[in-house]
Structure to design on (197 residues):
């Protein structure tokens, strides 16, 4: 190979205007956001998002002004549940687990795990807060303050099946209005328009 003609690539020096009051995504542009990580929480912008994936399935959650967390698991991921429960379940959850019929334990474990991971992602702590310190086995969609110590927030859960053999959980302060999109299908004129945020 002859490297005599090789030159350094051109480097762009973009102008960085502040974000507009109404953000619009179109299929004709790519957004690059420059963000200072030294800013205090909720000064970083109003757009919150979360990503979760398993195998060839990815789920994205976006919300304006509301932190979101999401997790998705396959049904087979509950196979080691008996080994994991003592490490991830609170004392209250372990007591409930012991009285559950064996037939519902695989699905109960998926609810427990997806809720915990989604909640820890919403809170921004990840697993720096041990999952056994929070309680998510509850029949209510409300995530009360007593279920997650030291956090003065209240989220709600939504459980859903993104496709067969998967279970997912979403946590956010408000889940009254959810909009669903499937981006695996080829885009046509009806779906390739502007997405307003």
């Amino acid at each position: 190979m002859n490297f005599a003609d090789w030159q350094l690539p051109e480097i762009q020096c973009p102008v960085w205007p502040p974000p507009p009051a109404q953000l619009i995504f179109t299929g004709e542009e790519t957004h690059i956001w420059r963000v200072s990580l030294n800013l205090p929480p909720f000064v970083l912008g109003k757009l919150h998002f979360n990503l979760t994936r398993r195998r060839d399935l990815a789920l994205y959650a976006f919300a304006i002004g509301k932190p979101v967390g999401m997790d998705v698991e396959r049904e087979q991921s509950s196979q080691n549940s008996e080994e994991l429960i003592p490490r991830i379940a609170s004392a209250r959850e372990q007591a409930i687990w012991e009285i559950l019929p064996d037939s519902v334990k695989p699905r109960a474990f998926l609810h427990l795990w997806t809720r915990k991971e989604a909640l820890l992602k919403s809170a921004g702590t990840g697993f720096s807060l041990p999952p056994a310190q929070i309680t998510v086995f509850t029949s209510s969609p409300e995530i009360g303050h007593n279920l997650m110590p030291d956090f003065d927030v209240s989220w709600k859960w939504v459980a859903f099946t993104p496709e067969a053999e998967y279970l997912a959980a979403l946590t956010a302060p408000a889940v009254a209005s959810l909009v669903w999109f499937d981006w695996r299908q080829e885009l046509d004129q009806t779906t390739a328009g502007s997405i307003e945020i």
Observations:
- The longest helix spans residues 105-123.
